[in-house]
Amino acid sequence: MDYTKLSGDILAAVGGKENVLGNMVCMTRLRIKVSNPEKVNSEAVKAIDGVMGLVEDGDRLEVVLGPGVVNKVIVEFAKLTGIAAGDVSDESASQAAKGNKAAQKATYENKPVQRFLKKIANIFVPLLPGIISAGLINGIINVINFSTKKAFVGEWWFAAIWTMGWALFAYLPILAGENAAKEFGGSRVLGAMAGALSIANAGMPLLATQMVDGKAVRLVHLPFELPSVAFANGTFTVGASNLFNAAAGGMIGAIICAIFFAWLEKNFHKIMPNVLDTFLTPLCTVIVGVIAAVLVLQPLGAFLTQAIFFILQFFYDKLGVFGAYLLGSTFLPLVSVGLHQALTPIHVMLNNPEGPTQGINFLLPLLMMAGGGQVGAGLALLLKTKNTRVKKYLTESIPVGILGIGEPLMYAVTLPLGKPFITACLGSGIGSVVAYLFHLGTVSQGVSGLFGLLIVQPGNQVFYALAMIVAYAAGFVLTWFFGVDENRIDDVFGK
Question: Among 360, 455, 402, 351, which Cα is nearest to 135's?
């Protein structure tokens, strides 16, 4: 494949070099920020050979290219635009701000919830390479420890690799805080500082202790007791304490604090004299922000975390099979609009060893079945359709779908056709029911599909494989009988 030509064709279809403000990659997608969305020829982008799909969100485009391909395209695309991968031209952005304001406002004017969830999702998109690599590391370590009865835990090289898998999730609040501040218009470093409040480090002054009668006693007490609520075993436990708990709010607390820091900073900029702005705005932001975070925002984050856990437990325990089916069958639509990354804080909460589930994520296996339903739908289409172009797309996208990357299959085939996407969703739900009946859980996140075997609780790999096979079969059968419309296929892809 000529990646230079492919990049040039994409650039021309999105309005040329002068219309591009930024370019970066995300798994299978080339993410482009444009100056004027009206200059983008959407149909031309979709018609380019090598492009599997296009997601449009105002001035942000996501060109679906597939794994591996996207990493080669970004190199050439960055050369053509003159903008480094991951960068945005501040000058161009400021010039385009006025012209895009009306269009952007109109896009989301009546969709505030969608707009907010998109921002939350965008916090985690740049973190995906780290989340994936750390998830794989934790999964491999999980399998090795289980199969060898922790024979390598004392080896330095094993501990070094394990540290990388642990470090990403241990310090994820800092990275998430940085991206949250950026997404909501604040300074990235101040957002990182806000996120650091959610890291329980022994050196944190708020957690300082002294030895009294051989016991570590906390030195720092808050000015008043803060209420706390925990949900476990079907009941809420209400308490209060004047001791700071860094991890109380979890990832949700870190994001809330970072967003608040960004809001403070923007408002201090408005009122601060220019001569003092550089010095006093960040100082005032941090001082006011940390007091609000410790006394209000982190307890709020803790409450929201417990509330979310309560809702998930309701779906899992009270609704049972129906709840599992509902969660599994509705996940692909979230992926199709890029909102699935907004669930990352929930996964982090569930995989926290000190969290409400002691580190076992019971939600992720249900959602992972979505990929199985779609692979099954793809296999049915491959065997039944006579359209050569669709067969080509399916041959390229099904193998990576089995590995856990389902976006090429979804954007290239099932979603444009409509019916296979619906049957894939319905089939996914059946796989989720089986995962629920097996009580599957994961010890990490970041991967799915075949690689999901690595992060499933030790000893449950066979049950995970069975649930995924059921999802394959359900997606296949439903698509074979109800999802293949040859006339629709020819209309979409040509004869």
Answer: 455
Helix, strand, coil proportions of the chain in percent (round to 5)? Answer: 65, 10, 25
- Neighbouring C-beta atoms of residue 2, cutoff 10 Å: 11
pLDDT tens digits, 86-106: 655 443 323 332 333 333 344
- 8 A C-beta contact, residue 433 and residue 477: no
361, 398 contact by CB (below 8 A): no
Does 3-110 carry CATH code 3.40.50.300? Answer: no
In the chain, where the domains are located: 3-110, 171-318, 325-493
pLDDT in tens, 363-372: 999 999 999 9
Residue 410 · residue 462 · CB < 8 Å: no
Nearest to 353 by CA among 237, 442, 458: 442
- Judge contact between 26 and 128, C-beta under 8 A: yes
Helix (H) or strand (E) holding 482: helix 461-482
SS3 11: helix
- Measure the CA–CA gap between 365 and 159, rounded to whole angstroms: 27
User: Nearest Cα to 23, choosing from 96, 97, 94, 73?
Assistant: 73
Closest CA relative to residue 291, chosen from 178, 360, 197:
197
Q: Of 294, 267, 88, 265, give the one whose Cα is nearest residue 189.
A: 265
Give the mean model confidence (pLDDT) for residues 302-314: 83
378 alpha-carbon distance from chain centroid:
24
Q: Which two tokens stand for residue 415?
A: 């979603």
Q: How many residues does the chain have?
A: 495
Closest CA to 386 of 491, 490, 492: 490
- C-beta neighbour count of 150 within 10 angstroms: 11
Q: Is 284 among the residues known to form the active site?
A: no
Q: Which of 26, 257, 284, 425 is catalytic?
A: 26
